[in-house]
Design a protein that fits this description.
five-stranded mixed beta sheet; Immunoglobulin-like; alpha+beta; Helix Hairpins; about 230 residues; 2 domains; single chain
Length: about 230
């Protein structure tokens, strides 16, 4: 597991989003430092030291400066918009032929991971679980993914809206009843990562967790009892 601190890059999609986060943070800090610096400069440079002193110099109608501080922010916002749009387009992109396909069903209060070709991991996908389920007595289900390969996730819910959220992947998608939300994940780091339901869904919402274990393609094939890739 990894601490929820500065975003890490555990998938190719999170690499795109992490770069966008760093750009937005850097630009925001630069703008903040400039604004704070100008405020402090004005406060100390033209502070009134004596009640008898005249007003500091007054500046009016500096049209080049007014045009500059209007155009420059628009250019900055435009650059950030284009960069973010391209990053999000890369995250939302799906390929024609994924290496693995998993149908993910969310339900109150658990997860079901059904791999095309087997196996099925997690609790039963049977619709609403009225009155709760004894999920606190069992470990959370685990979604196993091969590193360096693209996994297609087909996400839906059997009852209410849930959220498929893996913080270390910088990724969240809603699981909506009657709708299949399709996306690709391509892990690029080995390890085990915590997953959560990000939408409040009832009594045992806090217990609706899962883990994502990223393994080598060879280990993944062995886990699924498939022919081991050469």
């Amino acid at each position: 597991m990894h601490a929820l601190t500065w975003p890490m890059s555990a998938t190719s999609q999170s690499t795109l989003l992490g770069g966008d986060w760093r750009l937005l943070t850097t630009v925001g800090l630069i703008v903040a430092a400039l604004v704070w610096g100008l405020i402090l400069f004005a406060a100390f440079r033209w502070r009134r030291r004596d009640d008898r002193e005249a007003l500091p110099p007054q500046f009016r109608n500096n049209y080049p400066l007014e045009i500059a501080w209007t155009i420059v922010p628009l250019i900055i916002v435009g650059i950030l918009f284009v960069y973010t749009y391209r990053a999000e387009a890369g995250v939302d992109a799906v390929i024609a032929h994924p290496d693995v396909t998993v149908a993910v069903h969310a339900y109150r209060w658990g997860w079901n991971f059904a791999y095309v070709g087997g196996p099925i991991v997690g609790g039963p996908s049977v619709g609403p679980v009225d009155g709760g389920a004894p999920i606190d007595a069992a470990p959370p289900p685990q979604l196993v993914l091969p590193v360096g390969e693209t996994t297609r996730i087909e996400l839906t819910s059997d009852d209410v809206t849930h959220g498929f959220w893996v913080p270390d992947f910088l990724f969240k998608r809603d699981a909506i009843p009657g709708m299949i939300n399709t996306f690709d994940l391509r892990p690029d780091k080995l390890g085990t990562f915590l997953g959560r339901c990000s939408q409040f869904c009832g009594y045992d919402h806090a217990l609706m967790t899962f883990t994502v274990r990223v393994v080598t393609p060879k280990a993944f094939a062995a886990w699924r009892n498939l022919p081991v890739p050469s």
